[in-house]
Known about the structure:
Layout: H1 3-6, E1 9-13, H2 17-29, E2 33-37, H3 40-47, E3 55-59, H4 67-80, E4 86-90, H5 96-105, E5 109-112, H6 117-128, H7 132-135, E6 141-150, E7 155-163, E8 167-171, E9 181-186, E10 195-205, E11 215-222, H8 225-239
Parallel strand pairs: 1-2, 1-3, 3-4, 4-5
Antiparallel strand pairs: 6-7, 6-9, 7-8, 8-11, 9-10, 10-11
Amino acid sequence: xxxxxxxxxxxxxTPDRGAEKKLSDLLxxxxxxxxxxxxFEDLERLxxxxxxxxxxxxxxxLFGPGYREVQxxxxxxxxxxxxxxxxxxxxxxxxxxxxxxxxxLGCADVLSLEAPFLELVFAINRILFPKIxxxxxxxxxxxxxxxxxxSDKASGRGEVYNISQEGAFIQCERPESEGTRLTVRFxxxxxxxxxxxxxxxxxxxxxxxxxxxxGMGVSFLALGEGPSQSLGRFISGRANGNR
Length: 243
């Protein structure tokens, strides 16, 4: 991570001590400075400071067990202070409408507590470093859906970890060699028909860890007009915080 990223200060609020330790350790390993607390009063105190930090990650359970309590306390909190941005980690199962209402209150994003850690990293980077999108030719977003791939000699199944109009990273147990041509097929969330595209393996990794899962980066060789439009809508929705 860059020196600029290492200076970023995150505040994590959750009543779950286990989640607090796990998330603070993982975020610390990414180079962030992480302050943690399990008290709502500390959240209010932090936001009243002149320089409260760069991003607040807050477990919805800190506001109460029900959606109405979360909504009411968030509304009061964010009305008084819109900085720094607040990323809500929600234990509740929310409809798209319910999530949109929380975003309308001023949340920078709303993620499920069950979301993979990599999706949280994507959300944090999207909030803290909006200029990152401009460094790539195409916007890259978190995937989180299964994918089948086939070469001349083998076939396999994995999970799309991130994806753009240009290509994807596929987490899988046995990544193909660099230069291998593949037929990739996946059901894109929100679409009725599966997408199939020809691709080539650009790079691979066999290191397994929190931030470097085993898998391969593939470049799409050609996208038809229909698949390109479907993928574009999906990427746009994810980039704007929709799930």
